[in-house]
Amino acid sequence: MLEKIKECLCVCNITEERTQKEYSEIISTLFDKGYFPGLKGIPIVESTISNIDGEKGILTFRGYPVEELANNCSYEEVCFLLLTGELPNKKEQEELRRKLLTHKKVDSKVTDLITNMDRNLHPMYMLSTGVLLLQGSDNTSFNIQNQKENIERVIRLIAKLPTLIGVYRTNNPNFAEGKEFNSFAQYALYCLDEGSSQNQKLVDIFEKLLILHADHTINNSTFSVRAVGSSHASIFASIASAINSLSGPLHGGANEKVIKMLEEIEVPENAEEYINNKKSQGEKIMGLGHRVYKTYDPRGVYFKKELLPQIFNDNNPFEIDSSLEDLYKVAEEVEEIALKQLGSKGIYPNVDFWSGLILKAMNIKSNYFTTIFALGRIMGWSAHWLENIESKSSIFRPKQLYKGSEIRSIKK
Ligand code: ACO
């Protein structure tokens, strides 16, 4: 059947090999199942924001490889690029930095609610709730027709995201009172750990980590932003739903779970048995595998080759706890075994596999890891929300295959 599908695609002038392969898979799934479980591989929008080549392990934002952006750009530059399509000049970059640092303050009506939240509430649920609460100070947010105003609204929201985290973490609405910050990344790190934010080397690493997370095509949380935004819901409703989606362990929540897993394994010698047990129970190993990449995730490669050596080497300028060094050794062993056992199936470490070790070195508690993913990804989510409006997308409304009972009557 695949050959027949290929012939049909050629007749329709679809001749590029990769597209032919993807479309053939979609059409055979349709014949085979009649629906698309998890929308796997289904194109749902046209977008110009980011692109992935999952076979070659390439990720670009607006055409620039993510490694180049991490090596050369600030958070503000990448934010401007994602929101507008082009890198800013010096003045535009400074202007965005000024706006982000000016709008970081959150209204006391919101901070009062945050400081009264149950301390057991996971920081990701605080964050999505906090984002919704911010709508209260923006009574024009339901008018989404003006893109210039939308961009300004997005910038104000991005500015406040770390503040929500800082208020909840310290239980103090004035935790940053009187402090000056050189960059948005430094402020974001301050909200998570004051001490680390005073170390420029750590701020640089943190900034690169945020950039690596900034966008990733139509993943689960970005799909949520697009789906919710397509009903013309506000940016607050759309981003809150994305944060909730990201919290799941099969998505961004994996970074927190990876550290738990490494702690559970304890020493490298236990890694093989742990992996074999998980596999025999049909359970997933956290931090491995990806829907799109069938090779090493380029963000994972960047962590491994560029960022981790800056922390875990003898000449590094920070104090690294020996227990963290041990976790790093466990991670290296898990990676080696996973590559041997699962690499041939296209399962490799993903972005979440390594990021937790870096955040732990910054003294950040693991239940805050996924909020940091959100601090990076909010740039991409916002760009997708804006693009959805720009493209006048129709409301998302897929369909189901109904398998329930025929019409019946209540018999009393
Ligand atoms: N550990 C062991 N086996 C795995 C893993 C894993 N982490 N991931 C996939 N596989 C295996 C599956 O068991 C399956 O094997 P089978 O064909 O023999 O049944 C095969 O690979 C395909 O797996 P699917 O679950 O169908 O792949 P899918 O594309 O649906 O899922 C996902 C991708 C959700 C990321 C999955 O790999 C996973 O759950 N990984 C662990 C959680 C994780 O790290 N999530 C973060 C992803 S990155 C991000 O979202 C930021």
Notes on the structure:
This protein starts with a helix and ends in a 22-residue tail after the last helix. The protein has three domains: about 1-45, no CATH class; about 60-250 and about 380-390, Orthogonal Bundle (Citrate Synthase, domain 1), CATH 1.10.580; about 255-360, Cytochrome p450-Terp, domain 2, CATH 1.10.230.10. Helix content is about 55%, strand content about 0%. A hairpin with a 4-residue loop joins strand 1 and strand 2 (about 60). With about 400 residues, it is mainly alpha-helical. The longest helix has 24 residues, at about 145-170. It has helices at about 1-10, 15-35, 65-70, 75-85, 90-100, 110-115, 125-135, 145-170, 185-190, 200-210, 220-230, 235-245, 255-265, 270-280, 300-310, 320-340, 350-360, 370-390; strands spanning about 50-55, 60, 65. It has 18 helices and three strands. A three-stranded antiparallel beta sheet has the order 1-2-3. Acetyl coenzyme *A binds near residues 287 and 291.
